[in-house]
Design goal:
- It is a single chain.
- It contains 29 helices and 30 strands.
- By secondary structure, it is α/β, with parallel strands linked by helices.
- Among the domains are: 118 residues, Helicase, Ruva Protein, domain 3 (Orthogonal Bundle); 182 residues, P-loop containing nucleotide triphosphate hydrolases (Rossmann fold, 3-Layer(aba) Sandwich), CATH 3.40.50; 246 residues, Ribosomal Protein S5, domain 2.
- A seven-stranded mixed β-sheet has the order 23-24-22-21-26-29-30, with helices on both faces. It has a five-stranded parallel β-sheet with strand order 8-13-16-1-17.
- β10 and β11 form a beta hairpin.
- α3 crosses α6, α4 packs antiparallel against α6 and α24 packs across α27.
- The longest helix is centred in the first third of the chain and has 58 residues.
């Protein structure tokens, strides 16, 4: 009868597998388990230095992919060199394009501190230098030397003017020559009253003197310029003397870094060119825009001498490993901040902030691909940075041309980083197909599997994982029975007796919940009973809908028979998923038979409630009927299939064998046992194929039978290829052991129909017919009768032909 023995229903685990009493006595796990393929890919991708060999870690959430990658990278990063620091400094020739300076690890902060001390020293020593008596004496001597020449020239001009009868008068627009007659200066009005001849003589002398005075005036202007130049030279000399030793000390300290020495030279020259801002302060300058001192304006004048460290690696022990879980464009590539000053937004190089890519430069950057793709600017900019091997700090809107206001354009920084994207396999396939650059930049794929082999070695490592979780989170350790139950639950999650699940997040949650119940019992260790209770309670919290459905079945609202026999009616099984919980639910599948040429009609499809996979499964039934029964006659049948009381649609082919059994029952007029529920897909050759969710389907029907009363005859029929997937609840295993419930496994439709009807399926004999009295004989006979009956209605056949042609 193909009934499965108890030992096939659940693969139990030996509580002594650890070879010690509790996980407390074990060594914590120090490696990634169950992911040998992914580990090899990671080692290769992280080891190869060539361009474009970045890594895509493909796996589903809960498999430990992020934690495993982080731990793996941190172990590898410890052996790598610490990358350099990066600073931004003012570009004195073009302040809108700040310069980037590279320094060894730890030197960035030191350089920033040295420049801060130098600036404080300059602001303190320069005013004192210009308040000294020596400076006053040099300034006075310089002015006197030039002023004596200026006075001598002015005296010569005055003498010449007096000789010619003129007086020199200084005005805002220059020097005026005023004629003198009889010792008195002549004004403009009086000059006009003079005789014409005298006026012409005076004018002629004036023009001649003006020509001579122009040369003298140029000399005076040159003397004024010379005074300013000499005073400026004195100021530079005094300032250089005051700060020269400080500049020399810093330049000597950083002599091995050409970019720093060039910058220090520019700083020195700028200070010498802007001595007044150190001596007087911006608040005392006449060009200040406000009549009162403004603190931030006073300090902003000195910002250009500061050092902005955007990457500082002095605390690192190896290469950086940066996990960026919110990869927005500013978080990845940095940003240029702005501050409001009297209604305007202003910025400078000191407000440049680095991003995750800067911090990961020289190391590793881990990004969740789902979040990265939610920020299209980030993804495109990341590809450009990897392609060009440069980090550019810019606003995304500016790169797209949406912002036209002038802003900073910091110098780009060389990029050397290994990027690891973490996402699901579907996104990898989509990126590979739709993005031509993706394959060039992410050449390595590390696949994280959801299962691993259930070997003794892996079970030992599983126990070591439990030890690690308990130690990290200060939980109670598990004894042998607790680990055994955890291993069995892991196989249940993997839906395979020979596998263990690598969805370590779910396993860790069970450990935490079991720890809670162990604490309630004041137990020193977590036992198998605590693990079992944690699993059951987790199911109980989510099974409200399942209980509602079972209640409706028990009350007769949903029609499901568990102890009758009916023609053309089978209990099928499906799985309902609620996100965090999936359960099996029986459905009544019925078939009605009549004359016609339509073949098998899927009512679910006609009502647009059937999915394409379900439709395919139904169409396969026609192929099976043609193959088996229509070799000597046309298939003259109209069979309609439906899932009774289904209002949400049907998808999948796991009920195709159920539907076929209903058709065979209706054709043979043999009743089907309603105490046996059926699942499994079927092919055109009549072979029953594996389906998913076999444990949930069996348990779902068992719960219904238990609610309506176990009779000892109820059971479930599954494909034989699903036997290895069985990890049923202990309650069902116990019921089977007590002969209260039965599990049957079949390979073919013939085996299945025998179990459901109690009649022999029947093989084809030499004359092409089937053994008399068997199910196949009755079906074949009924189909012959229907074909002959249909020939009696030629008009009907013509109409059907027209319908099929149209």
């Amino acid at each position: 009868m193909n009934e499965l023995p108890v030992e096939k229903l659940r693969k139990e685990c030996d509580p002594n597998l650890m070879r010690c009493e509790t996980t407390q006595e074990m060594m914590p796990l120090e490696e990634i388990i169950g992911q040998e393929r992914a580990v090899r890919a990671l080692k290769f991708g992280l080891g190869i230095k060539e361009r474009g060999f970045n890594i895509y870690v493909a796996g589903y959430p809960g498999t430990g992919r992020t934690t495993a990658v982080k731990d793996f990278l941190e172990d590898m990063a410890r052996t790598k060199p610490v990358p350099s620091d990066w600073c931004y400094v003012n570009n004195f020739s073009n302040p809108y394009e700040p310069k980037a300076i590279k320094l060894p690890s730890g030197k960035g902060k030191e350089f920033q501190r040295d420049m801060k001390n130098f600036l404080e020293d300059a602001r303190r020593t320069l005013p004192k230098a210009f308040e000294s008596e020596d400076y006053a004496a040099r300034r006075e001597a310089t002015i006197k030397a030039v002023e004596s020449q200026r006075k001598e020239l002015i005296d010569q001009i005055n003498s010449k003017a007096q000789e010619e009868g003129f007086l020199i008068q200084s005005t805002p627009i220059g020097l005026l020559l005023i004629p003198v007659i009889r010792g008195k200066p002549v004004g403009d009005q009086e000059f006009l009253t003079l005789p014409q001849k005298i006026r012409e003589e005076i004018q002629e002398k004036r023009e001649k003197l003006k020509s001579e005075f122009r040369s003298a005036m140029r000399q005076l202007v040159d003397m004024d310029r010379k005074i300013h130049e000499e005073l400026g030279k004195v100021d530079r000399d005094v300032a250089l003397f005051a700060i020269g030793h400080s500049v020399s000390d810093i330049m000597e300290k950083y002599k091995d870094f050409p970019d720093v020495t060039t910058y220090l030279e520019n700083v020195r020259n700028d200070i010498l060119d802007n001595v007044p801002q150190f001596v007087k302060g911006p608040e005392a300058r006449p060009e200040a825009p406000f009549p009162f001192p403004v603190p931030w304006m006073r300090e902003s004048a000195f910002r250009k001498y500061e050092v902005n460290v955007i990457v500082e690696n002095s605390d690192l022990k190896g290469s950086p490993v940066i996990m960026e879980f919110n990869p927005t464009h500013p978080n990845l590539f940095g940003r240029i901040e702005k501050e409001a000053q009297f209604g305007a937004l202003v910025t400078d190089f000191t407000m440049i902030r680095g991003g995750s890519l800067h911090r990961a430069n020289g190391g590793y950057l881990v990004l969740p691909v789902e979040e990265l793709l939610r920020n299209p600017f980030s993804y495109d900019s990341l590809k450009r940075a990897l392609r060009n091997e440069r980090i550019v700090i810019e606003e995304a809107e500016e790169r797209l041309g949406f912002i036209t206001t002038k802003s900073l354009k910091p110098e780009s920084i060389p990029l050397s980083v290994k990027v690891i994207l973490i996402g699901n396999p579907f996104l990898y396939q989509q990126l590979y197909v739709l993005d031509m650059e993706f394959n060039e930049l992410f050449k390595v794929k590390a696949d994280f599997d959801t299962t691993m082999q259930r070997t003794e070695e892996n079970m030992q490592r599983y126990a070591a994982f439990v030890c690690t979780i308990c130690q990290k989170e200060n939980l109670k350790h598990l004894d042998g029975s607790g680990v055994a139950k955890l291993v069995e639950h892991s196989s249940r999650l993997a839906e395979d007796q020979s596998k263990l699940s690598t969805r370590f997040a779910e396993i860790a949650d069970i450990i935490r919940e079991a720890n809670f119940y162990a604490a309630e019992d004041s137990s020193n260790f977590v036992t198998g009973n605590h693990v079992k209770k944690a699993i059951e309670e987790k199911v109980y919290r989510s099974k409200l809908i399942q209980e509602k459905i079972q209640e409706m079945i028990k009350r007769g609202i949903l029609l499901i028979d568990t102890d009758a026999e009916t023609v053309g009616q089978v209990n099928g099984l499906s799985v309902m998923s609620l996100g965090d919980f999936a359960f099996g639910s029986p459905s009544r599948v019925t078939a009605s038979i009549g004359l016609g040429r339509e073949g098998v009609v899927d009512i679910e499809r006609e009502a647009k409630m059937g999915g394409p996979i379900h439709t395919k499964g139904v169409l396969i039934l026609s192929g099976f009927l043609n193959e088996k029964y229509a070799q000597d006659k046309p298939l003259s049948l109209s069979a309609r299939l439906v899932f009774e009381q289904n209002y949400e649609g049907v998808e999948g082919d796991s009920a195709s064998s159920t539907e076929l059994y209903a058709i065979l029952s209706a054709l043979s007029e043999l009743a089907i046992k309603q105490n046996i529920a059926v699942t499994g897909s079927v092919n055109q050759k009549g072979e029953v194929q594996a389906i998913g969710g076999v444990n949930e389907k069996i348990e779902g029907f068992f719960e219904v039978c238990k609610a309506k009363g176990l009779t000892g005859k109820q059971g479930v029929m599954i494909p034989e290829s699903n036997v290895e997937n069985l990890m049923l609840k202990e309650e069902i295993v116990e019921a089977v052991k007590r002969r209260k419930f039965h599990i049957y496994a079949v390979k073919t439709v013939d085996q299945g129909i025998e179990i459901l009807t109690g009649a022999k399926a029947g093989a084809r004999i030499k004359d092409g017919t089937f053994e008399k009295g068997t199910v196949n004989y009755r079906v074949d006979k009924r189909l012959k009768e229907m074909a002959e009956k249909l020939r009696e209605f030629p008009a009907f056949l013509m109409e059907e032909k027209k319908k099929s042609e149209s």
